[in-house]
Amino acid sequence: MPGHTHSSAARAHRSRLALALVLVATFFVVELVAGLLTGSLALLSDAGHMLTDVVGIGMALAAIQVAASGWAHPRRSFGLYRLEVLAALANAVLLLGVAGWVLVEAARRVADPPEVAAVPMLAVATVGLGVNLVAFVLLHRGAQESLNIRGAYLEVLADALNSVGAILAALVLLLTGWPYADPLFAGLIALFIVPRAWRLGREAGRIILQAAPPHAPPHEVAARLARVDQVSDVHDVHVWTLTSGMEVLTAHLVVADDAETHAVLDRAREVLAREYGIEHATVQIEPESHEGCEEVTW
Question: What family is this (predicted)?
């Protein structure tokens, strides 16, 4: 059953998120202290991303828990699944905010580069990369199934890349003493993060605005339903995403007065599930002689 499958996936996601949260939160404190002591913007940038990881993974974990519990209430007929999407949107905003701060600080440091302790910077960045890779593996599978977890996954990925940048900056400092390596690598990583955060935010915005999923445009779905045996017309087709992997549809199908309505309904639902992955569909069957069902114009 779809509901049971989603619940099982949610439990697996919760355990992986909880473990990733403990790892990232612990190392955030270590990296923040190290960044302040060494004066490295790359480490402070990585610590900033670690903080967004902590907040993002924490929100993702909370959203899954709350959505699974449903907080039963007669006014919440769809439960609280949409909270996962709100968490993903918040993650995107956090990522953009941190990237903006790093770019501003990098520009300031290029004008007046401070002295940076390269050896401890290299050691901390290397350990940080290891922590991020473990979290990356923990979240990889869930990122394919949940937009919410994809937000946390992208933050961890960005953080891992930031750790790589910090390692490279430390190596350049050790080998050449070039003072611009630290702000340069920090700025490059920030630029890398921006488009990915933007795409995450755009996808969350699409769901919040109840736009149709890319794989199921309403006009195409309507045309396909119109080809179902005994269907003469299709109208009032609405398709939207409740949360990742949960598409919803409503549609009106017009059939002949003597049509086998049960068979039409079964075929329509089979088409929606097989070709579009839509398993939650409300399909209204209308005989041609029926009057009074007018299309909504908004």
Answer: Belongs to the cation diffusion facilitator (CDF) transporter (TC 2.A.4) family. SLC30A subfamily.
